[in-house]
Design a protein that fits this description.
The chain is of the alpha/beta class. It folds into 2 domains: 174 residues, Vaccinia Virus protein VP39 (Rossmann fold, 3-Layer(aba) Sandwich); 74 residues, Orthogonal Bundle (DNA polymerase, domain 1), CATH 1.10.150. It has a 7-stranded mixed sheet with strand order 3-2-1-4-5-7-6, sandwiched between helices. α3 links the parallel β2 and β3. The longest helix is centred in the middle third of the chain and has 17 residues. The protein is globular and about 60 Å long. It binds S-adenosylmethionine.
Length: 282
């Protein structure tokens, strides 16, 4: 159901070879991991991390030999690796954001195309839901989240204002209620929902904390590959790679971010905003 993005490019960047070990920090439905597994047989191993417990339970049943799957957040990467004694890591992959499973199956309000409760959490351990943000956070905070998620500052301001006015009369509990407000003001449902999801799951903060850990767990000459779908994510990755390159810890292998081909975007529209960056530990 989930079509992995930049499949060929991920393999070119990570360059997996027989008997090497890899970490997939965002396992999802395991598409990229399956591709890597084919290349690292017979003894290579993959440590897969998936934050979503429901998705983890689904995929765990069919997980292939050679893959060790963990239900945790990549923000705990170094701990997970130490606990599992996972050694000799030749590559680490992050394929950020949500999977098609979240949009189509989870029923947690990730999509504006169906009526669902506004949850948007990957992990139930997280106390913040989209509903809490929309009904209890200040106008200032909501505006900040939306401004970061969309380039139109004025629209973010208007949407935040109407959210705060609406909730005085009735709590905002469903995707359709939120969609009505966005539509009324001519905002982008996709960007608004994405901005909320990123805030609910603290995705930018987690990425900042995880990237240095990824470098620490890699072997020297191991490769770190990140696929992002939002300009703020890509900026975090770009700045981190530059800073590590300046201090002589990595060589950047993608001078410019790699984007999907026109054909991939046609076949899988979800890939259109994907940007891949890769560096090698020195
Ligand atoms: C784009 S999907 C990955 C798809 C995967 N590459 C595939 O081919 O099936 C991203 C996945 O990362 C998970 N995720 C998001 N934040 C996470 C985190 N902090 N730690 C671990 N997994 C996370 C999501 O639940 C989602 O399943």
């Amino acid at each position: 159901m989930h079509v992995p993005v930049l499949r060929k490019e991920v393999l070119e960047c990570l360059n997996p070879k027989a008997n090497e070990n890899f970490i997939d920090c965002t396992f999802g439905l395991g598409g990229h991991s399956s591709d890597i597994l084919e290349k690292i047989r017979p003894t290579g191993k993959i440590l897969g991390i998936e934050a979503d417990n429901e998705l983890y339970q689904e995929v765990k049943k069919g997980v292939r030999k050679g893959i060790e799957l963990v239900n945790d957040s990549y923000v705990n990467l170094e701990n997970i690796v130490a606990q599992r004694k996972f050694k000799n890591v030749s590559g680490v992959l992050f394929d950020l954001g949500l999977s098609s499973w979240h949009l189509e199956i989870s029923g947690r309000g990730f999509t504006f195309k169906k009526k669902e409760p506004l949850d948007m959490r990957y992990s139930k351990l997280n106390q913040t839901t989209a509903e809490k943000i929309l009904n209890y956070w200040s106008k200032f905070e909501i505006e900040r989240i939306l401004r970061e998620g969309m380039s139109e500052v004025a629209k973010a301001e208007k949407i935040a204002k109407v959210i705060v006015e609406t909730r005085k009369n009735m709590p905002i509990k469903t995707t359709t209620q939120l969609l009505r407000i966005i539509d009324l003001l001519g905002g982008s449902p996709q960007l608004t929902f994405q901005a909320l999801r990123i805030a609910v799951n603290q995705e930018l903060e987690n990425l900042k904390k995880a990237l240095p850990q990824a470098l620490n767990v890699l072997n020297s000459s191991g490769r770190l590959t990140v696929i992002s779908f939002h300009s703020l994510e890509d900026r975090i990755v770009k700045n981190f790679f530059r800073q590590e390159a300046v201090s002589g810890k990595v060589e950047i292998l993608t001078k410019k971010p790699v984007s999907p081909s026109a054909q991939e975007v046609r076949n899988n529209p979800r890939s259109r905003s994907a940007k891949l960056r890769c560096c090698q530990k020195l």
